[in-house]
Design a protein that fits this description.
Length: about 230
């Protein structure tokens, strides 16, 4: 599966790399290889420098002007239809990475983080998967789009749509250590349901051996949930 690095600057702000190309342009700090979690066999998510608050304000304004026609069920249906999609031997080749690399958003995150469009083609893609589902269903203003899980979570938080209750269609952010800090987020998926037994069922990209899969996760690994504004 796609692998990636975390780098922490002296100001203690996470700045990590997206793929080999973007890694070369990130700040040098304390590097930690983020490989599959020993308990779950799941890769951690790509890092970058910081969320762009200006874009969050722009997206929030776009959302307020957009009629909300997409339901949580529609988003989950498309996400689940992707189950089984797999990356290639180089950690790339998915439609989500190709779409993101060619998107307008890629230009914005390259300006923020450095690197090139080609760097996204083999980068960790769990957040790209979430972004792709949002775009394809017409729910992008509600779901947001980013390649970095931390920035994606902070976008929800900046729009006052982040909390600790699992809801179907919510975007769930994980830290395998159990940290509740947004800066420690390593992975992301969609909540399918709360199992009411300390676990949630999810749909995730870039999990297992680099596939889209349905998983069951313990809640203690959850940092928090982003809440898209769906049509009831």
């Amino acid at each position: 599966m796609a692998k990636h690095l975390f780098n922490v600057s002296k100001s203690n702000i996470a700045r990590a790399a997206i793929g080999a190309t973007i890694a070369a342009s990130a700040l040098v700090g304390h590097a930690v290889t983020a490989d599959a979690d020993s308990a779950t066999g799941v890769a951690a998510a790509t890092g970058a420098r910081h969320p762009d608050t200006a874009l969050a304000a722009h997206e929030a304004g776009a959302k307020s002007e957009t009629k909300i026609n997409v339901t949580a069920d529609q988003v989950l249906a498309l996400a689940k239809a992707q189950v089984g999609t797999s990356e290639n031997a180089y950690g790339g080749g998915t439609p989500y990475q190709k779409w993101y690399a060619a998107s307008e958003r890629a230009a914005e995150t390259i300006a923020r983080d450095g690197g090139s469009r080609a760097g996204y083609l083999n980068a960790a893609w769990c957040s790209m998967f979430i972004s792709w589902v949002g775009d394809q269903t017409g729910a992008r203003p509600q779901i947001g789009w980013d390649a970095w899980t931390v920035a994606h979570a902070k976008w929800f938080a900046g729009n006052h749509r982040f909390g600790d209750a699992p809801k179907p269609g919510a975007v769930v952010f994980f830290s395998w250590s159990g940290s509740k800090s947004l800066d420690d987020i390593q992975h992301v998926g969609f909540v399918e349901k709360d199992n009411k037994n300390g676990t949630i069922s999810t749909v995730e990209g870039n999990t297992g051996n680099g596939k889209v899969e349905e998983r069951v996760r313990p809640k203690w690994q959850v940092v928090g949930y982003g809440y898209p504004e769906y049509r009831a």
